Amino acid sequence: MEYMTTASTGAPRWLTDEEQHTWRAYLHATTLLEDHLDRQLQRDAGMPHTYYGLLVQLSQAPRRRMRMTELARNAKITRSRLSHAIARLERNGWVRREDCPSDKRGQNAVLTDDGHAMLSRSAPGHVEAVRQAMFDRLTPEQVKSLGEIMKALATGLEPEGVNADLPWLR
Fold first, then answer.
1. Contact status, residue 70 vs residue 151, Cβ threshold 8 Å
2. Residue 15: which residues within 8 A CB-CB, separation 6 or more?
3. By C-alpha distance, which of 80, 101, 82 is closest to 90?
4. Which residues lie below 8 Å from residue 100, measured CB to CB, with a gap of 6+?
5. DSSP helix, strand, coil percent of the chain (3-state; round to 5)
6. Is 98 helix (H, G, I), strand (E, B) or coil?
7. What is the pLDDT of residues 41-51, one digit of tens each?
8. Virtual CA dihedral for 40, 71, 78, 44, nearest 10 degrees?
């Protein structure tokens, strides 16, 4: 693995004490937030947060269907992990797979009426969990700043081109 170094000395660019504090606070908070949302969704809907996110994406897609490769890319998960998730969602009757009419090798994931109903039932509790865990703790200015910060991070990390070596693009 290559490490960023300063041009003049070739030494690693270690984090300052403040950067280290911020980095660790970020890791701690995001781990706690993801755990909080997972526990709420497992308790109220019998599914992890990742699966809920897949249902949301399908609910917002035209005709509640999406190519599996696009769904994996949007969810930032491998095709293998997506296939496992979709299989579980199929067993619950919330999603079904269909062959893609434009590409005989491809498949679409389709949100069923039962899946849409489950999403409708679980969304209010999930939104409340998000609100309590995050937005109720921040001022409007902090919400705006956090949004800007997350957008800057995502923009800087978003892969360029279709040949980027990322698991969800393989």
1. no
2. 23
3. 82
4. 67, 106, 107, 108
5. 65, 10, 25
6. strand
7. 999 999 999 99
8. 10
pLDDT in tens, 46-90: 999 999 999 999 999 999 999 999 999 899 899 899 999 999 999
Q: Which residues neighbour 74 within 8 Å (Cβ) at sequence distance 6 or greater?
A: 57, 66
CB 54 within 8 A of CB 115: no
- Nearest CA among 89, 46, 49 for reference residue 66: 89
Q: For the whole model, what pTM was predicted?
A: 0.83
Identity at 121, one-letter amino acid code: R
Residue 131 three-state SS: helix
Centroid of chain to Cα 39: 16
